[in-house]
Structure formats: structure tokens, C-alpha cells
Design a protein that fits this description.
The protein is of the alpha/beta class and about 290 residues long. Helix content is about 40%, strand content about 20%. The chain has a single domain, classed as Rossmann fold (3-Layer(aba) Sandwich). The chain contains twelve helices and nine strands. The chain starts with 5 loop residues before the first strand and ends with a helix. Residues about 1-10 have low confidence and may be disordered.
Length: about 290
């Protein structure tokens, strides 16, 4: 633990303590103040979220796994309870640099890396550069290859970069309000109280810039994703657990097939859920991670 860098403070009053009963910690990075939680002792699991989520996404897994493991989950800058600096670049590349700084500050070694959504490129880029630090990898509905040739992604990118896309993201809180709900196969599994925790962390236009910036990088960072993909062999010796929501409308089973073609040392668990398996299949995800690590 690093004296003078980390802080522990009371959580915001709107957070339901029964859902998220963790101690909030903060670390000052070059680009801003990052929030994270660090629960339990034992082998370390580092959870990396995507958009429009934050460490709250992994709360059920952390409740279960922190009995036997040290569970660390960050909020990227601009997300969750982390600082939301308006001048922060907000690309996956910049988030990856923050992650590296965070890991170095806490001196995290020999850990299991768990990634989801945009967290795949953010977390795996660190693993590729520092393979000696990573023991195992858990992939959950994510990707790590070029996106600019994908017609579906091109359509999404066109909307996001239009005046309408900007208006919806910044004024209507479109990503957590609409797209997040669309990511669920079983809509009933998303309660109003849970959904509130994804909405309230983006209370105004300036706080939603991070959502817009990372959405715009879906294609603008395409070459960077591909560069990471071409170096995936650097972590080919790592055991991999793939947990995949087969009803995901965003990152479909076709993405899963590409992972299966590229990596060989993996275990696969298919789940009858949408994009946010940590919510829809919470107990299954927790149990499968526990089994994988044991």
C-alpha cells in the first residue's frame, strides 16, 4: 500500500450500501483522481470495466470472491466515482496508460486480469506489455481487433459523430439510459434501483463527456486495437477463461468465434444472457471464476 497516494473516504449518499458495501479508495494519477475498491486477501483479481459501467458492475462477483481472493476494481477516469476531467483525452489508449500507472503505484504482481467490453483493449494492452505481471486472463464479451471495416460499427460511428449523437449522449444521458438497458436480454433482471447506480454517476453534460469520447473511439482507435491484436501471442501461454453472454446484441457470438480462432489455452462458458453478464448471470459468473482460479 502506498502512503500518501491512497485515500479512503465515505461513499456518496445515493449509493445503496446493501448493493455496494465496499470501502471507496482513491489514488491520484497524472491525469486525475481515480476511484477503486480493494477487498479481500489472497491471490489478486483485477477487474476492468467498459462503458457505460464502473466498478459497481462487478459488485456481486467481488462479494463472492473476496472471501478467498483480493479483488480490485477500478473506475476509469470519467466513469463511476473517479474524477471527470473535461480535458482528459478519454480514449482506450489513455485509459490504458492510467491503468499501467495504477498497477505500478499499487505494485500489483502475479494477478488475474478480468476484462469486459472496452476493458478488453484497455486491460489486455497492459498484459501484452507486461506479460510477467499477469497470471491468468478472464474475457467477458469483448474484442481486440480492428473495427473500421465492420459495417455495423460504421453505422454506430456515424451516429455518434453526428450532432444528434452528441446531443443524445450529453443531454439525454443516452448511453446508460438507453444503450445500457438494450444490453440486457432479460430486461427484468435490471431493477430501477440498480439502474439508478449507472445513471446517477453521470449527472450533467460535462460528466458525460467520457461516455461520448470512448464511444467515438470505437473506430478512431481501430488501428490501435489491431496493433494489440497482432501482439496477442505475447500472452498465449496464459490460461484463459471466456465467459460469454450468447444473447449479446452488441458483441455477438461472431466475436466469440474470433477469440476461439486466435487462442488455444482457454475454457469457455456460454451464458444465456446479454452483454452485461455480471448483472444477468451474476452467480454463474462468480462461480465460474472461482472454479477457474481454483
Amino acid at each position: 500500500m502506498t502512503t500518501g497516494i491512497q485515500q479512503q473516504i465515505r461513499k456518496e449518499a445515493w449509493i445503496d450500501q446493501s448493493l455496494y458495501p465496499f470501502h471507496s479508495k482513491y489514488i491520484q494519477l497524472k491525469s486525475g483522481k481515480m476511484h477503486y475498491i480493494d477487498e479481500g486477501v489472497g491471490e489478486t483479481i483485477l477487474f476492468i470495466h467498459g462503458t457505460p459501467t464502473w466498478s459497481f458492475l462487478y459488485r456481486n462477483q467481488i462479494k463472492h470472491l473476496s472471501k478467498n481472493y483480493r479483488c480490485i476494481a477500478i473506475d476509469h477516469l470519467g466513469f463511476g466515482l473517479s474524477e471527470k476531467p473535461v480535458n482528459f483525452e478519454g480514449t482506450p489508449q489513455s485509459h490504458s496508460r492510467n491503468l499501467a500507472e495504477f498497477i505500478d503505484h499499487l505494485n500489483i504482481q502475479n494477478f488475474t486480469l478480468a476484462v469486459h467490453d472496452f476493458g478488453g483493449s484497455i486491460g489486455l494492452s497492459y498484459a501484452i506489455k507486461n506479460p510477467e505481471k499477469v497470471k491468468k486472463v478472464i474475457l467477458m464479451n469483448t474484442w481486440l481487433w480492428e473495427t473500421k471495416s465492420n459495417p455495423e460499427v460504421q453505422k454506430i460511428d456515424k451516429l455518434i459523430n453526428s450532432w444528434l449523437g452528441k446531443f443524445l449522449y450529453l443531454n439525454f444521458n443516452f448511453s446508460p439510459k438507453v444503450l445500457f438497458k438494450k444490453g440486457f436480454y432479460n430486461k427484468k433482471s435490471l431493477t430501477k434501483n440498480v439502474h439508478k447506480h449507472y445513471l446517477t454517476v453521470f449527472p450533467n453534460k460535462s460528466s458525460r463527456l467520457s461516455l461520448l469520447k470512448i464511444a467515438k473511439s470505437l473506430i478512431s482507435s481501430s488501428d490501435w486495437y489491431q496493433a494489440q491484436w497482432e501482439q496477442l501471442h505475447k500472452i498465449s501461454d496464459k490460461p484463459v477463461l471466456i465467459l460469454w453472454g450468447m444473447k449479446d446484441e452488441f458483441i455477438t457470438p461472431k466475436y466469440l468465434e474470433k477469440w476461439q480462432q486466435q487462442i488455444s489455452n482457454y475454457q469457455l462458458v456460454k451464458l444465456n444472457s446479454g452483454h452485461f453478464i455480471q448483472e444477468e448471470a451474476a452467480s454463474e459468473v462468480s462461480q465460474e471464476i472461482d472454479k477457474f482460479l481454483r
